Amino acid sequence: MDIRRMETQEKVDLSRKYFLGGCFFLPFLWAVNAVWFFKDAFAKESFPGQNKIRSNVVKSAIGAGIWLIVLITWNVIFQIKRPQWGEFGDRLSAIIPRGIA
Amino acid sequence: MLSNLAVPFVLLWAGARANRGVPVSEALPVDFFCFRRLNDTHQFGCSSDYNGNVGVVHVVRGSKDIEYVESTGPPTKYMALIDDVDLRVDTLDRFAKSNRVSGVLVTQTNKKAQAFSIDDTCPNRYSSFYKGEESCQKNKIDGNKVSSALLRDYPFPIFYVNETLTEKVIVCYNKFNKDTTQNSLYEKRKCSLKMFAPMNAAVDSKTCLRRTQLLSYFTLPTHFCDPLENKNVFALLEASEPAQETVIIAARLDSFSLFSGLAPGADSAVSGIVSLLTLAEALTKVKSSTIRNKNILFALFNGEAFDYIGSSRCILDLTNGGFAYNLGMDNITSIIELNQLFLTTDSEKNWFAHVDAEQYNDPEMRKKLDAILTSLKASGRIVDSVDNDLPPSSARRFLNDKPKLATVVLTNYKQTFANHYYNSIFDSYPHRISDIPKQSEKLQGLLASVGDTVLKMVAPPGSSPAPLEINKQLIDDLLVCYLRNSSCPRFQAVVNSISRKILREEPHSLYVSVSPPSGTTSGSTALTYLSLVRYSGRVVDNVTDAEACLALHRANTERNYTWMYGENPKPSEPGICVEHLATMTTARSPAFDSQDSDELHYSTWTESIWSQPEMSLFIQASVRSQYTALALGFVIFATSLLLSVLIYRKSDDIFEDPNPTQTPASPVAC
């Protein structure tokens, strides 16, 4: 799909679908939405429905940003604390490291 | 300009290739290596990193060299090369603390250390039932610099190799590493070593066993650790008339060292095993006119060096009614243990019969113990010793479980071990014992006293059995079998066409190890079992093949029948069929089979799974040439980038246009 050739109304619908899809714990949809429609939302001359795209893009970007922070925080906590958690840490691990705590 | 630069580089590489006759990289065989063991709370032993450790070789001959490696040498990772007799726990600790040592290569020198025992000063400290530090110093030997090395965790691998291999490393070291100025690491190539021996398990036994279980749900097909496990060996000599009361004669089957596959255990275990086998032979031979009122159970416990694995399992089986021969704990009346028995110096003239002071103070028990001690002392070779704490022994475990069990432990020491190599690489021929015939003669005297005492213990009251005959030649031969060459005539006689593959030229390791593949038994345990079968059994006449021997067992399941070559196999009589009551039972700590075993001090030792250790010697380029190579890489990259841009810009001038009339406009804006 080449979004450069889409009608503006289709773009509005698509960005809305991506935003709603992202609400179901799919942060990558939000991230894609924010990147794809950034130019349409902010860089292009105004056209009907641009405000809707803009709001979808902003909400998606904020949502994806929050997800990113949460995931990084969890990753850091997990990497640092896993050895101390003992059994709980092992159960959370898909690949248990060899030879270390 | 480029060609001007390239000439010196080419020369430099040519120089790096010529390693003065030493191959650039050479794989070396790893004979023995230190590995990781774990208990309830800690990990012990050694491990390399996941991808192996690399370091610059440094030969450690004195304190100067230790300091060099630790701090004064150029900052890098070192591989320390050290002689086995120079090995010290404090040196290894300094290496670990400095964080500059990536491995230790220990050389087998055949020199004799003054004292060398890697076990705790109080062996099996945490399963000892005697509290108080004072009493628990049996293995505190003056001059033992490796004391408690078993209970340390080193972050680098330690390999134990022969002198020829070390010689190769030293030649390389002398050629490249002798220049020890601060700058030499930067300017010169260095002789380096890579050691690879990563361990899978970590933290403690609980963690590694849990991880092994968790893994079955996931992807990796690896495995972390296994409980220490082997077999106990028993044989029953029945009373003249069926009887329940039983006397145990015990010894331990295992020993260990810091290195895998190397556990000679000469005094630690072999002295007891050989004595027990000889006693079994003598007592089995006794004429049927000598009446025995009680059974005699010959018991060889395995895994005793790791918190009494075998004896605690046997006690549990006896108590639960799961033991062989329908024996229960109530049937056992006394236990005599043969512990460490070599008398090697002239000042050592007699053995000690240890009894527990608390038991000895009980009037009823004192009567029983005195009867045993009086008989033991009769020959003048054994002296009694009433101790506040019995020597570390399987018998001590039994006594703790059944305070009314008359318990005697026979040893060659009174307070602290006479054996300065308890559980180590030096507890071997020729370090611990060099004159085998002389030693057998001494043991013959001891075993005569012990045998007579046992006969009196099982005889009906008032009778006096004839003195027992001990076969000195058997002691002699068996000591050679266990200490020098396991492919000896005595062992050749007890194997058959299938089991003969366990025979080999070197002595077998006595380490308890982990559960072997099903249907197999470790070499030392199997040979001990077969010897006990031979010496406690009876040859069945007129059976000339293995099939017929096996058929006898089907006809009489009460007894076991084993087919073996015998002392002199002939084409007409290819072997002998032995009827016996010997058996092997699992020696695995009850801690791994039951849930609520924490308070019972059961052994929790496990051994890590490892990848096959490897070692290679190679010449590491100098830091300067490493930087040069890196810089050269950057230069080449930048040059080629520049060149492509220039060529692209000037492409119209350089390349002739093949079809000048049809040239379209360039589709890409640059």
TrEMBL record, chain A:
Major location category of this protein: membrane
Question: What's an example GO cellular component term for this entry?
Answer: gamma-secretase complex
Which keywords describe this protein according to UniProt?
Answer: Membrane, Notch signaling pathway, Transmembrane, Transmembrane helix
InterPro entries named among the record's database cross-references: Gamma_Secretase_Asp_P_PEN2
Task: Kindly give the membrane topology term recorded for this protein.
Answer: Multi-pass membrane protein
- Subcellular location, in the record's words? Membrane
One GO-annotated biological process of the protein: Notch signaling pathway
Q: Which residues cross the membrane?
A: 18-38, 58-78
Family of this protein: Belongs to the PEN-2 family.
Which protein are we looking at? Answer: Gamma-secretase subunit PEN-2
Automatic annotation (TrEMBL), chain B:
Question: Which Pfam families does the entry mention?
Answer: Ncstrn_small, Nicastrin
Query: Where mainly located?
Result: membrane
Which top-rank group of organisms is this from?
Eukaryota
How does this protein lie in the membrane?
Single-pass type I membrane protein
Question: What Gene3D superfamilies would the database entry show?
Answer: Zn peptidases
Q: What are the transmembrane regions?
A: 627-648
Q: Which InterPro entries match?
A: Ncstrn_small, Nicastrin
CC terms in the record's Gene Ontology section: plasma membrane
Q: Name one GO biological process term.
A: Notch signaling pathway
Q: Keywords, A to Z? A: Glycoprotein, Membrane, Notch signaling pathway, Signal, Transmembrane, Transmembrane helix
**What sequence ranges are listed for the domain Nicastrin small lobe?**
34-201
Localisation = Membrane
Q: Which residues form the signal peptide?
A: 1-18
Q: Which family does it belong to?
A: Belongs to the nicastrin family.
Name under which the protein is recorded: Nicastrin
Species lineage: Eukaryota, Metazoa, Ecdysozoa, Arthropoda, Chelicerata
